[in-house]
Design a protein that fits this description.
alpha+beta, Alpha-Beta Plaits, two-stranded antiparallel ribbon, 21% helix
Length: 107
């Protein structure tokens, strides 16, 4: 096995923004990124300071959502340019990482 460089990207949203499905569709159908995972938070806040939380009594539909994806660094740079119009840039975090690559896999 060898290592290959990738860029990890994390996008912070709330369910109430109604951007999740459009973002997933974009990443899957248009950008064809190598992998995506969506995490639903139970509590969180951003620069507004408004707390978004879930409780057993009140299952909020405005909880924090994190969309994480990865791909080759050059592709991620292009993809982030495409996403700039639909997302607040201050809600996007990225960092370099490595992925294990099977040298015998022909794909």
């Amino acid at each position: 096995m060898k290592m290959a460089p990738i860029t990890m990207v994390r996008v912070y949203l709330t369910e109430g923004e109604s951007k999740l499905q459009a973002l997933i569709k974009r990443l899957h159908d248009w950008e064809h990124v190598r992998g995506v995972t969506v995490f639903r938070g139970i509590s969180g806040f951003g620069k507004s300071g408004v707390m978004h939380s879930a409780s057993l009594v009140d299952m909020s539909l405005n909880l924090p959502v994190v969309v994480e994806f990865f791909d080759d660094p050059d592709r991620v740079e292009i993809i982030l340019g495409h996403l700039a119009a639909m997302l607040d840039p201050s809600h996007i975090v990225s960092w370099p990482a490595n992925i294990m690559v099977d040298e015998t896999d022909p794909t």
